[in-house]
Protein backbone atom coordinates (compact mmCIF):
# COMPACT_ATOMS: atom_id res chain seq x y z
CA UNK A 1 0.00 0.00 0.00
CA UNK A 2 1.78 3.13 -1.15
CA UNK A 3 2.54 5.75 1.48
CA UNK A 4 0.80 3.91 4.32
CA UNK A 5 2.82 2.04 6.90
CA UNK A 6 0.77 1.29 10.00
CA UNK A 7 3.86 1.02 12.19
CA UNK A 8 4.89 4.52 11.13
CA UNK A 9 1.33 5.74 11.66
CA UNK A 10 1.32 4.40 15.21
CA UNK A 11 4.33 6.53 16.04
CA UNK A 12 2.22 9.61 15.27
CA UNK A 13 -0.14 8.75 18.16
CA UNK A 14 1.74 9.17 21.44
CA UNK A 15 -1.06 7.75 23.60
CA UNK A 16 -0.72 4.33 21.99
CA UNK A 17 2.82 3.92 23.27
CA UNK A 18 2.04 2.95 26.86
CA UNK A 19 1.32 0.03 29.10
CA UNK A 20 -1.94 -0.26 30.99
CA UNK A 21 -2.49 -2.84 33.70
CA UNK A 22 1.04 -4.04 33.00
CA UNK A 23 0.32 -4.82 29.34
CA UNK A 24 0.84 -2.92 26.10
CA UNK A 25 -2.29 -0.86 25.42
CA UNK A 26 -4.57 -2.30 22.73
CA UNK A 27 -7.07 0.38 21.79
CA UNK A 28 -10.10 -1.00 19.97
CA UNK A 29 -12.65 1.69 20.87
CA UNK A 30 -12.16 4.29 18.15
CA UNK A 31 -15.84 4.26 17.16
CA UNK A 32 -16.49 5.85 20.57
CA UNK A 33 -13.65 8.30 20.19
CA UNK A 34 -10.43 8.17 18.21
CA UNK A 35 -6.93 8.98 19.46
CA UNK A 36 -5.12 12.11 18.32
CA UNK A 37 -1.93 12.35 16.29
CA UNK A 38 0.87 14.61 17.52
CA UNK A 39 0.08 16.96 14.61
CA UNK A 40 -3.33 17.71 16.13
CA UNK A 41 -1.95 18.12 19.64
CA UNK A 42 0.73 20.47 18.27
CA UNK A 43 -1.84 22.53 16.36
CA UNK A 44 -3.85 23.08 19.55
CA UNK A 45 -0.77 24.11 21.53
CA UNK A 46 0.47 26.37 18.73
CA UNK A 47 -2.91 28.10 18.50
CA UNK A 48 -2.93 28.87 22.21
CA UNK A 49 0.74 29.85 22.26
CA UNK A 50 0.62 32.15 19.22
CA UNK A 51 -2.77 32.99 17.78
CA UNK A 52 -5.50 32.86 20.42
CA UNK A 53 -8.05 35.70 20.31
CA UNK A 54 -11.74 35.92 19.57
CA UNK A 55 -12.70 35.80 15.90
CA UNK A 56 -14.60 38.03 13.47
CA UNK A 57 -15.02 41.06 15.68
CA UNK A 58 -11.47 42.16 16.43
CA UNK A 59 -9.33 44.63 14.54
CA UNK A 60 -6.05 43.59 16.14
CA UNK A 61 -3.47 41.22 14.76
CA UNK A 62 -4.26 38.23 16.97
CA UNK A 63 -7.95 38.43 16.15
CA UNK A 64 -7.05 38.55 12.47
CA UNK A 65 -4.83 35.48 12.85
CA UNK A 66 -7.45 33.59 14.84
CA UNK A 67 -10.11 34.48 12.26
CA UNK A 68 -7.84 33.31 9.47
CA UNK A 69 -7.21 30.03 11.29
CA UNK A 70 -10.92 29.49 11.97
CA UNK A 71 -12.07 30.36 8.46
CA UNK A 72 -9.12 28.45 7.02
CA UNK A 73 -10.36 25.40 8.90
CA UNK A 74 -13.75 25.85 7.22
CA UNK A 75 -12.07 25.74 3.82
CA UNK A 76 -10.10 22.62 4.85
CA UNK A 77 -13.38 20.91 5.78
CA UNK A 78 -14.96 22.01 2.48
CA UNK A 79 -12.09 20.46 0.53
CA UNK A 80 -12.19 17.25 2.60
CA UNK A 81 -15.86 16.52 1.86
CA UNK A 82 -15.83 18.25 -1.54
CA UNK A 83 -18.57 20.74 -0.74
CA UNK A 84 -19.14 23.38 -3.42
CA UNK A 85 -18.83 26.38 -1.14
CA UNK A 86 -17.34 27.18 2.30
CA UNK A 87 -20.70 28.67 3.20
CA UNK A 88 -22.04 25.11 3.21
CA UNK A 89 -19.84 24.22 6.20
CA UNK A 90 -21.36 25.01 9.60
CA UNK A 91 -19.23 24.41 12.69
CA UNK A 92 -21.17 22.76 15.51
CA UNK A 93 -20.38 20.80 18.64
CA UNK A 94 -20.61 17.42 16.93
CA UNK A 95 -22.90 15.11 15.02
CA UNK A 96 -25.51 15.31 17.76
CA UNK A 97 -25.78 19.08 17.55
CA UNK A 98 -25.77 19.01 13.75
CA UNK A 99 -28.81 16.73 13.65
CA UNK A 100 -30.63 18.67 16.37
CA UNK A 101 -29.96 21.83 14.39
CA UNK A 102 -31.59 20.41 11.25
CA UNK A 103 -34.52 18.97 13.21
CA UNK A 104 -35.21 22.23 15.01
CA UNK A 105 -34.72 24.60 12.05
CA UNK A 106 -35.50 22.78 8.83
CA UNK A 107 -37.82 20.46 10.73
CA UNK A 108 -39.79 23.08 12.66
CA UNK A 109 -40.25 25.09 9.46
CA UNK A 110 -41.20 22.32 7.05
CA UNK A 111 -42.58 19.41 9.06
CA UNK A 112 -46.07 19.50 10.56
CA UNK A 113 -48.85 17.32 11.93
CA UNK A 114 -49.31 14.15 9.90
CA UNK A 115 -46.06 14.61 7.98
CA UNK A 116 -43.53 11.81 8.09
CA UNK A 117 -39.87 11.63 9.06
CA UNK A 118 -38.16 8.52 7.72
CA UNK A 119 -35.15 7.04 9.53
CA UNK A 120 -33.75 3.50 9.80
CA UNK A 121 -33.75 0.79 12.44
CA UNK A 122 -29.97 1.03 12.85
CA UNK A 123 -29.64 4.71 13.78
CA UNK A 124 -27.62 6.01 16.70
CA UNK A 125 -29.83 7.75 19.27
CA UNK A 126 -28.43 11.03 17.89
CA UNK A 127 -30.40 10.37 14.71
CA UNK A 128 -33.53 9.13 16.47
CA UNK A 129 -34.19 11.29 19.50
CA UNK A 130 -34.07 14.73 17.77
CA UNK A 131 -36.68 13.43 15.30
CA UNK A 132 -38.84 11.90 18.04
CA UNK A 133 -38.70 15.24 19.83
CA UNK A 134 -39.73 16.99 16.63
CA UNK A 135 -42.60 14.54 16.18
CA UNK A 136 -43.77 15.24 19.72
CA UNK A 137 -43.57 18.99 19.08
CA UNK A 138 -45.36 18.96 15.72
CA UNK A 139 -47.53 15.85 15.55
CA UNK A 140 -45.39 14.39 12.76
CA UNK A 141 -44.95 10.63 12.49
CA UNK A 142 -41.66 8.73 12.70
CA UNK A 143 -41.31 5.95 10.11
CA UNK A 144 -38.53 3.38 10.06
CA UNK A 145 -36.71 1.47 7.30
CA UNK A 146 -36.21 -2.05 8.70
CA UNK A 147 -32.97 -4.01 8.79
CA UNK A 148 -32.67 -7.71 8.04
CA UNK A 149 -30.84 -10.35 10.05
CA UNK A 150 -27.47 -9.45 8.55
CA UNK A 151 -28.01 -5.85 9.58
CA UNK A 152 -28.58 -4.60 6.04
CA UNK A 153 -31.34 -2.13 5.24
CA UNK A 154 -34.33 -3.76 3.59
CA UNK A 155 -34.17 -1.75 0.39
CA UNK A 156 -37.34 -3.32 -1.00
CA UNK A 157 -39.24 -1.54 1.77
CA UNK A 158 -37.86 1.91 0.99
CA UNK A 159 -39.97 3.06 -1.94
CA UNK A 160 -43.23 2.36 -0.12
CA UNK A 161 -41.94 4.24 2.95
CA UNK A 162 -41.08 7.32 0.88
CA UNK A 163 -44.62 8.70 0.64
CA UNK A 164 -46.10 12.04 -0.35
CA UNK A 165 -46.08 12.90 3.38
CA UNK A 166 -42.35 12.17 3.87
CA UNK A 167 -40.56 15.44 4.60
CA UNK A 168 -37.03 14.16 5.27
CA UNK A 169 -35.01 10.94 5.13
CA UNK A 170 -32.34 10.79 7.85
CA UNK A 171 -29.96 7.85 7.60
CA UNK A 172 -26.62 6.82 8.97
CA UNK A 173 -23.77 6.27 6.53
CA UNK A 174 -22.16 3.63 8.75
CA UNK A 175 -23.89 2.01 11.73
CA UNK A 176 -21.82 2.40 14.89
CA UNK A 177 -23.46 -0.69 16.40
CA UNK A 178 -23.19 -3.08 13.42
CA UNK A 179 -20.66 -1.57 11.03
CA UNK A 180 -23.15 -1.74 8.16
CA UNK A 181 -22.43 0.74 5.35
CA UNK A 182 -25.75 2.06 4.05
CA UNK A 183 -26.15 2.74 0.33
CA UNK A 184 -26.73 6.43 0.97
CA UNK A 185 -26.15 7.51 -2.63
CA UNK A 186 -28.86 5.16 -3.86
CA UNK A 187 -31.20 6.14 -1.01
CA UNK A 188 -30.64 9.81 -1.83
CA UNK A 189 -31.43 9.16 -5.48
CA UNK A 190 -34.71 7.49 -4.55
CA UNK A 191 -35.68 10.18 -2.05
CA UNK A 192 -34.81 13.00 -4.43
CA UNK A 193 -36.88 11.36 -7.16
CA UNK A 194 -39.83 12.18 -4.88
CA UNK A 195 -38.50 15.61 -3.90
CA UNK A 196 -37.55 14.51 -0.36
CA UNK A 197 -34.38 15.93 1.21
CA UNK A 198 -31.80 13.63 2.82
CA UNK A 199 -29.66 13.98 5.94
CA UNK A 200 -26.73 11.61 6.35
CA UNK A 201 -25.14 10.88 9.73
CA UNK A 202 -21.50 10.48 8.74
CA UNK A 203 -20.01 10.14 12.24
CA UNK A 204 -18.59 6.67 11.52
CA UNK A 205 -17.89 7.19 7.83
CA UNK A 206 -15.51 10.13 7.44
CA UNK A 207 -12.77 8.38 9.42
CA UNK A 208 -12.81 5.26 7.27
CA UNK A 209 -13.21 6.20 3.60
CA UNK A 210 -13.37 9.23 1.31
CA UNK A 211 -16.67 11.11 1.46
CA UNK A 212 -17.78 13.39 -1.37
CA UNK A 213 -21.01 15.18 -0.54
CA UNK A 214 -21.55 16.27 -4.13
CA UNK A 215 -21.23 12.71 -5.35
CA UNK A 216 -23.60 11.45 -2.62
CA UNK A 217 -26.00 14.23 -3.52
CA UNK A 218 -27.37 14.49 0.03
CA UNK A 219 -28.76 17.74 1.43
CA UNK A 220 -27.13 17.49 4.88
CA UNK A 221 -24.12 15.58 6.15
CA UNK A 222 -23.14 15.53 9.85
CA UNK A 223 -19.92 14.42 11.55
CA UNK A 224 -17.81 14.85 14.69
CA UNK A 225 -14.17 15.93 15.02
CA UNK A 226 -13.32 13.59 17.88
CA UNK A 227 -14.07 10.44 15.92
CA UNK A 228 -11.79 11.51 13.07
CA UNK A 229 -8.64 12.09 15.16
CA UNK A 230 -9.53 15.71 15.92
CA UNK A 231 -10.63 17.37 19.17
CA UNK A 232 -13.89 16.88 21.02
CA UNK A 233 -16.48 19.64 21.03
CA UNK A 234 -16.19 20.41 17.33
CA UNK A 235 -18.15 18.94 14.45
CA UNK A 236 -19.61 19.83 11.12
CA UNK A 237 -23.00 20.22 9.57
CA UNK A 238 -22.68 20.32 5.81
CA UNK A 239 -25.81 21.68 4.18
CA UNK A 240 -26.52 22.52 0.57
CA UNK A 241 -26.41 26.29 0.31
CA UNK A 242 -29.99 26.65 -0.91
CA UNK A 243 -31.25 24.56 2.01
CA UNK A 244 -29.26 26.48 4.65
CA UNK A 245 -30.30 29.81 3.12
CA UNK A 246 -33.94 28.88 3.58
CA UNK A 247 -33.54 27.77 7.21
CA UNK A 248 -34.26 29.94 10.25
CA UNK A 249 -31.55 30.32 12.90
CA UNK A 250 -30.98 27.70 15.59
CA UNK A 251 -29.65 29.51 18.66
CA UNK A 252 -29.60 33.27 19.15
CA UNK A 253 -26.65 35.34 20.30
CA UNK A 254 -23.52 37.10 19.13
CA UNK A 255 -22.17 36.67 15.59
CA UNK A 256 -25.37 35.25 14.13
CA UNK A 257 -26.89 38.72 13.57
CA UNK A 258 -26.41 41.63 11.22
CA UNK A 259 -28.24 44.14 13.41
CA UNK A 260 -30.21 44.13 16.64
CA UNK A 261 -32.69 46.59 18.06
CA UNK A 262 -35.06 45.87 20.90
CA UNK A 263 -37.80 45.63 18.27
CA UNK A 264 -36.11 43.70 15.49
CA UNK A 265 -33.21 41.37 14.72
CA UNK A 266 -31.76 40.89 11.24
CA UNK A 267 -29.94 37.58 10.97
CA UNK A 268 -26.51 37.06 9.50
CA UNK A 269 -25.96 35.06 6.31
CA UNK A 270 -25.02 31.37 6.37
CA UNK A 271 -23.03 29.75 7.86
CA UNK A 272 -22.71 32.43 10.60
CA UNK A 273 -26.47 32.45 11.18
CA UNK A 274 -26.04 29.01 12.74
CA UNK A 275 -22.94 29.78 14.81
CA UNK A 276 -24.20 31.87 17.71
CA UNK A 277 -21.63 32.86 20.32
CA UNK A 278 -17.89 32.35 20.44
CA UNK A 279 -17.22 29.18 18.50
CA UNK A 280 -14.84 26.38 19.42
CA UNK A 281 -11.85 28.06 17.78
CA UNK A 282 -9.13 25.65 18.83
CA UNK A 283 -11.48 22.80 17.99
CA UNK A 284 -11.78 24.00 14.40
CA UNK A 285 -8.02 24.49 14.20
CA UNK A 286 -7.44 20.99 15.58
CA UNK A 287 -10.02 19.50 13.22
CA UNK A 288 -8.25 21.11 10.26
CA UNK A 289 -4.96 19.60 11.47
CA UNK A 290 -6.64 16.17 11.68
CA UNK A 291 -7.93 16.54 8.14
CA UNK A 292 -4.51 17.54 6.85
CA UNK A 293 -3.11 14.49 8.61
CA UNK A 294 -5.68 12.23 6.90
CA UNK A 295 -5.08 13.89 3.54
CA UNK A 296 -1.33 13.33 3.86
CA UNK A 297 -1.94 9.62 4.52
CA UNK A 298 -4.51 9.52 1.73
CA UNK A 299 -8.09 8.51 2.48
CA UNK A 300 -7.88 5.77 -0.18
CA UNK A 301 -4.94 4.28 1.73
CA UNK A 302 -6.82 4.59 5.01
CA UNK A 303 -9.82 2.86 3.45
CA UNK A 304 -7.67 0.03 2.07
CA UNK A 305 -6.05 -0.50 5.49
CA UNK A 306 -9.47 -0.55 7.18
CA UNK A 307 -10.89 -3.03 4.67
CA UNK A 308 -7.95 -5.37 4.98
CA UNK A 309 -7.94 -5.26 8.79
CA UNK A 310 -11.70 -5.71 9.06
CA UNK A 311 -11.51 -8.82 6.87
CA UNK A 312 -8.66 -10.18 8.98
CA UNK A 313 -10.47 -9.40 12.24
CA UNK A 314 -13.76 -10.89 11.06
CA UNK A 315 -12.07 -14.16 10.22
CA UNK A 316 -10.04 -14.17 13.43
CA UNK A 317 -13.06 -13.54 15.65
CA UNK A 318 -15.13 -16.17 13.91
CA UNK A 319 -12.53 -18.73 15.01
CA UNK A 320 -13.35 -18.03 18.67
CA UNK A 321 -15.69 -20.78 19.99
CA UNK A 322 -19.16 -19.52 20.86
CA UNK A 323 -18.69 -16.11 19.26
CA UNK A 324 -21.66 -14.79 17.29
CA UNK A 325 -21.19 -11.70 15.18
CA UNK A 326 -24.04 -9.18 15.40
CA UNK A 327 -24.10 -7.43 12.02
CA UNK A 328 -22.79 -9.38 9.05
CA UNK A 329 -23.66 -6.98 6.24
CA UNK A 330 -21.81 -7.50 2.96
CA UNK A 331 -20.57 -3.92 3.15
CA UNK A 332 -19.15 -3.11 6.55
CA UNK A 333 -16.67 -0.67 7.95
CA UNK A 334 -14.64 -0.49 11.13
CA UNK A 335 -16.91 -2.23 13.63
CA UNK A 336 -17.10 -5.78 15.01
CA UNK A 337 -20.07 -6.27 17.32
CA UNK A 338 -20.48 -9.67 18.88
CA UNK A 339 -21.83 -11.93 21.62
CA UNK A 340 -19.53 -14.45 23.28
CA UNK A 341 -21.42 -17.59 24.30
CA UNK A 342 -23.89 -16.53 27.01
CA UNK A 343 -21.40 -14.26 28.78
CA UNK A 344 -22.62 -10.75 29.45
CA UNK A 345 -20.75 -8.18 27.32
CA UNK A 346 -19.85 -6.17 30.42
CA UNK A 347 -18.01 -9.21 31.79
CA UNK A 348 -16.24 -9.64 28.45
CA UNK A 349 -15.17 -5.99 28.48
CA UNK A 350 -14.00 -6.10 32.11
CA UNK A 351 -11.85 -9.18 31.62
CA UNK A 352 -10.36 -7.77 28.41
CA UNK A 353 -9.56 -4.56 30.27
CA UNK A 354 -7.41 -6.56 32.67
CA UNK A 355 -5.41 -7.60 29.60
CA UNK A 356 -4.94 -3.97 28.53
CA UNK A 357 -7.53 -4.27 25.76
CA UNK A 358 -10.10 -1.47 25.40
CA UNK A 359 -13.39 -2.37 23.74
CA UNK A 360 -16.89 -1.00 24.27
CA UNK A 361 -19.79 -2.95 25.73
CA UNK A 362 -23.41 -1.92 25.95
CA UNK A 363 -26.15 -0.83 23.58
CA UNK A 364 -23.89 1.69 21.80
CA UNK A 365 -26.61 4.34 21.90
CA UNK A 366 -28.53 2.28 19.37
CA UNK A 367 -31.16 0.50 21.44
CA UNK A 368 -33.67 -0.04 18.59
CA UNK A 369 -31.19 -2.10 16.58
CA UNK A 370 -30.28 -4.09 19.70
CA UNK A 371 -34.01 -4.78 20.08
CA UNK A 372 -34.07 -6.02 16.48
CA UNK A 373 -31.29 -8.50 17.25
CA UNK A 374 -32.96 -9.37 20.59
CA UNK A 375 -29.87 -8.54 22.64
CA UNK A 376 -29.63 -5.89 25.38
CA UNK A 377 -25.98 -5.21 24.60
CA UNK A 378 -23.01 -6.42 22.57
CA UNK A 379 -19.24 -6.32 22.84
CA UNK A 380 -17.84 -4.01 20.18
CA UNK A 381 -14.29 -3.81 18.92
CA UNK A 382 -13.77 -0.91 16.54
CA UNK A 383 -10.83 -0.35 14.24
CA UNK A 384 -8.94 2.72 13.12
CA UNK A 385 -5.98 3.53 10.93
CA UNK A 386 -3.50 2.84 13.75
CA UNK A 387 -4.74 -0.67 14.53
CA UNK A 388 -2.74 -3.72 13.52
CA UNK A 389 -3.17 -7.45 13.07
CA UNK A 390 -1.33 -7.76 16.40
CA UNK A 391 -4.13 -5.80 18.09
CA UNK A 392 -6.65 -8.23 16.63
CA UNK A 393 -4.55 -11.22 17.71
CA UNK A 394 -4.40 -9.79 21.24
CA UNK A 395 -8.19 -9.45 21.23
CA UNK A 396 -8.60 -13.07 20.16
CA UNK A 397 -6.21 -14.23 22.92
CA UNK A 398 -8.17 -12.08 25.37
CA UNK A 399 -11.46 -13.65 24.33
CA UNK A 400 -10.02 -17.11 24.91
CA UNK A 401 -9.10 -15.94 28.43
CA UNK A 402 -12.69 -14.78 28.95
CA UNK A 403 -13.90 -18.22 27.91
CA UNK A 404 -11.48 -19.87 30.37
CA UNK A 405 -12.78 -17.72 33.23
CA UNK A 406 -16.37 -18.74 32.50
CA UNK A 407 -15.68 -22.41 31.88
N1 LIG B 1 -23.99 8.95 15.00
C1 LIG B 1 -23.19 7.87 15.04
C2 LIG B 1 -23.32 6.82 13.97
C3 LIG B 1 -22.27 7.75 16.07
O1 LIG B 1 -21.47 6.68 16.11
C4 LIG B 1 -22.19 8.77 17.06
C5 LIG B 1 -21.21 8.66 18.20
N2 LIG B 1 -21.15 7.41 18.81
C6 LIG B 1 -23.02 9.86 16.93
C7 LIG B 1 -23.91 9.92 15.91
C8 LIG B 1 -22.98 10.99 17.92
O2 LIG B 1 -21.78 11.66 17.81
P1 LIG B 1 -21.37 12.77 18.90
O3 LIG B 1 -21.53 12.12 20.24
O4 LIG B 1 -19.94 13.06 18.57
O5 LIG B 1 -22.26 13.92 18.69
Question: How would you characterize this protein structure?
Answer:
With 407 residues, the chain is of the alpha/beta class. The chain folds into two domains: 6-30 and 298-402, Aspartate Aminotransferase, domain 1 (Alpha-Beta Complex), CATH 3.90.1150.10; 41-295, 3-Layer(aba) Sandwich (Aspartate Aminotransferase, domain 2). 39% of the residues lie in helices and 16% in strands. The chain is built from 14 helices and 17 strands. The strands form five sheets. Strands 4-10-9-8-7-5-6 form a seven-stranded mixed beta sheet, sandwiched between helices. A hairpin with a 2-residue loop joins strand 1 (19-20) and strand 2 (23-24). Helix 4 packs parallel to helix 5 and helix 11 (299-318) runs parallel beside helix 14 (389-405). The site of 4'-deoxy-4'-aminopyridoxal-5'-phosphate has 13 residues, from helix 4. Keywords: Pyridoxal phosphate, Transferase. Its cofactor is pyridoxal 5'-phosphate. It catalyses: (sulfur carrier)-H + L-cysteine = (sulfur carrier)-SH + L-alanine. This is Cysteine desulfurase. Residues 26-395 form the Aminotransferase class V domain.
Amino acid sequence: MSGFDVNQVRKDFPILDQEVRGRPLVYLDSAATAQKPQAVIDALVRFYQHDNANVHRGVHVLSERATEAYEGARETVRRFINARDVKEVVFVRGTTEAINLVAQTYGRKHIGAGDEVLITQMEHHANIVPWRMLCEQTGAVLKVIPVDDRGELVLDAVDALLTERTRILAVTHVSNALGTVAPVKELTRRAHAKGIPVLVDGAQAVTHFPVDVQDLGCDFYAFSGHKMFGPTGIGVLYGRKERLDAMPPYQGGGDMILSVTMEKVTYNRVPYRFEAGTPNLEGAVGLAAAIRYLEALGMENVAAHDRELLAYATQALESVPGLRMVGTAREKSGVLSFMLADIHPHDVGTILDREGICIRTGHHCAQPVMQHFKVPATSRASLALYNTREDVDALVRGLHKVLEVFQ
